[in-house]
Design brief:
Elements (H helix, E strand, L loop, with lengths): L9 H8 L4 E5 L6 H9 L3 E7 L2 H10 L7 E5 L5 H7 L5 E7 L4 H4 L26 H7 L2 H12 L4 H13 L6 H12 L5 H15 L2 H15 E11 L2 H12 L22 E3 L9 H6 L7 E7 L3
Parallel strand pairs: 1-2, 1-4, 2-3, 4-5
Antiparallel strand pairs: 5-7, 6-7
Bound molecules: S-adenosylmethionine.
The site of S-adenosylmethionine has 21 residues, from helix 2.
């Protein structure tokens, strides 16, 4: 059985995450690459491994079978993590990993419709057993909402124009596949090929269809109660909106009154329950990106739960 997804920043994840025996959370199990390395290198580690994708879970469950009862696997979104945690015994976590976004298994499967580079239904769900596909959602959506999605999650300057074209195509039955979406974008943008725009539009629709911003928010709000004192959370984000939100919430900083002068002692924000361990964001080396181009946008941060 060969893994399809190459774990990103593997040595760095282990260096920050692993610190002794206890229960670890992998909230984004995927192919189980990070978790397998953790369980191999930390004999006292037990794992609560979760993913919303039933296909990823089936693969990871087989891969991690040799660890026996050290591993509990759950079909769970971030919102459902409290239930998965209780089912795994509810012991406060020693470590938690959120390796966000998509796995190569999802990206490369044409049936998921995740990529403009493969022909398939315009689905984009990480869990095809729940919710509605991107094509169905676009048929029912109005232009301003779609424009807002493209702007907020894809940074698309042409959001209004593209939304108009997409909603019109969806309502007339002409937006069922990934190729249809590329053709609609090409026509709306004036006929040339625009791979960067396609990637931005697919990312925006994927975040929308999977409700990724609200999912992340739910996990970040729940984490302080789930982690044991001294427990470490490692996050890997693949786009700037996600990374920004992780920083805002886990740094616990309110915005300072002025950006032009350093904060006065009286203005020091309440730093909340987390201590930031990574002084600077950790990114992959040139070698890693050369080996695995999908790692290129990865941004890793680590935070320690302060004792209460
Ligand atoms: C980048 S992959 C993880 C790869 C994994 N670390 C490995 O080594 O194979 C991200 C995984 O997170 C899952 N995922 C993303 N958002 C999720 C959410 N809100 N709830 C549950 N799973 C999620 C995806 O289904 C995907 O399998």
């Amino acid at each position: 059985m060969r893994a399809h997804h190459e774990p990103v920043l593997l040595a760095e994840v282990l260096a920050w995450l692993r610190h002794g025996p206890g229960l670890y959370l992998d909230a984004t199990l995927g192919d189980g690459g990070h978790s397998e390395a953790l369980l191999d290198s930390e004999p006292g580690a037990r794992l609560c491994g979760c993913d919303r994708d039933p296909f990823a879970l089936a693969f990871a469950r087989d891969r991690l079978e040799r660890f026996g009862d050290r591993v509990t696997v759950a079909h769970s979104t971030f919102r459902e993590l409290p239930g998965a945690h209780r089912a795994a015994g509810g012991e406060p976590f020693t470590g938690a990993l959120f390796d966000l976004g998509l796995s190569s298994r999802q990206l490369d499967d044409p049936a998921r419709g995740m990529s403009f580079q493969t022909e398939g239904p315009l689905d984009l769900r990480m869990d095809p057993s729940r919710g509605t596909s991107a094509a169905e959602r676009l048929q029912a959506a109005d232009e301003p909402s779609v424009a807002q999605v493209l702007r907020a999650h894809g940074d698309l300057r042409e959001a209004a124009t593209l939304a108009r074209a997409m909603v019109a195509a969806a309502r007339s039955g002409g937006l069922a596949t990934t190729r249809d979406l590329v053709s609609v974008l090409d026509r709306a943008l004036g006929g040339r090929r625009h791979p960067r725009r396609y990637a931005q539009a697919f990312q925006a629709l994927r975040i929308w269809v999977n409700d990724e911003a609200a999912e992340l928010e739910a996990a970040l709000q729940w984490l302080p109660d789930a982690m044991g004192p001294g427990g470490v959370v490692v996050t890997i984000a693949y786009h700037s909106g996600e990374d920004r939100r992780i920083k805002q919430v886990l740094r616990g900083a309110r915005s300072f009154p002025s950006r032009r002068r350093p904060p006065q002692a009286s203005e020091e924000p309440d730093r909340g329950p987390w201590l930031e361990l990574t002084r600077r964001v950790v990114t992959p080396t040139h070698d890693e990106v050369a080996r695995n181009p999908r790692a290129r946008s990865a941004r890793l941060r680590a935070f320690r739960r302060k004792p209460t």
